[in-house]
Amino acid sequence: MYILGDFFEVWIGDDAMSPFQLSICKALRALSDSGTRIFLMHGNRDFMIGKGFCKAAGCTLLSDPSVVQLNGERVLLMHGDSLCTRDEGYIRMRRYLRHPLTLFILRHLPLGTRHKLARKLRNESRAQTRMKANDIVDVTPDEVPRIMQQFDVRTLVHGHTHRPAIHKLQIGDQAARRIVLGDWDRQGWVLQVDEQGFSLNSFDFVPETTALLN
C-alpha cells in the first residue's frame, strides 16, 4: 500500500500524536503485521512525520518522487505539490519548510508553539488558496511531461490538487497517463492496481469514521 502524502490534516511531530492519530498508527501497524507492506510519502500537511511514527506504524518512508514497479510497469509516484510550479510563493515556502535546518528547529520547538504555528500556517494557506486562480494551484501542464520524461515513465500518480481523474497524455510518440487521487473529506479515494489494471475508485466512510473526522 502506498500513501502519497497528506494522510493527516496536520502533523507537528511524532511526539505529539492525538488520540485519533494514535489510532491510525495502531491500525497501520496491525495491517503491516498482517503482511501488507506500507509505504508513506510526505505531503504538504504532514511533512514532519519522522522515523518514530514510521517505526511505530510499521511503514517505510518513501522519497518524493519515487519510481515503483506496478503490474510490471515503471510508475512515478509523487505527492504532487512540486508540480504546481506556477504557484511560486508556495514553492518558495515549501523549499524553506523542507530544509533540514528548518525541520530540526521546528521539531525542537515547544509543543504549544508548534500547535500555534501549525494553525497559523494552515489558516494562511487556506486564505491564500481561495485568492489564487484555479490554474495557479493546479499542476503546471509543461511540468508533467518534463518530469515523466526525466524518470522515463508513462504513468504518473499523484494527489495534492484534490481533482481526482485519469488524464490521457501523449509524450513523444507514446501514450501516457496522469492519475490524480482525491482528498479524503466526505469520501475516500484509492487507486487499485491488480491483474485487471489501474482503477481509480471512491468509497463512502462508515458512520464511525465520519464522526471521528468531524
TrEMBL record:
Residues 3-164 form the Calcineurin-like phosphoesterase domain. One of its GO terms (cellular component) is cytoplasm. Its EC number is 3.6.1.54. It is found in: Cell inner membrane. It comes from the Bacteria. It is a peripheral membrane protein. InterPro entries: Calcineurin-like_PHP, LpxH-like, Metallo-depent_PP-like, UDP-diacylglucosamine_Hdrlase. Binds 2 Mn(2+) ions per subunit in a binuclear metal center. Pathway: Glycolipid biosynthesis; lipid IV(A) biosynthesis; lipid IV(A) from (3R)-3-hydroxytetradecanoyl-[acyl-carrier-protein] and UDP-N-acetyl-alpha-D-glucosamine: step 4/6. Coiled coil: none annotated. It catalyses: UDP-2-N,3-O-bis[(3R)-3-hydroxytetradecanoyl]-alpha-D-glucosamine + H2O = 2-N,3-O-bis[(3R)-3-hydroxytetradecanoyl]-alpha-D-glucosaminyl 1-phosphate + UMP + 2 H(+). One of its GO terms (molecular function) is UDP-2,3-diacylglucosamine hydrolase activity. Belongs to the LpxH family. This is UDP-2,3-diacylglucosamine hydrolase. It comes from Pseudomonas amygdali pv. lachrymans (Pseudomonas syringae pv. lachrymans). The gene is lpxH.
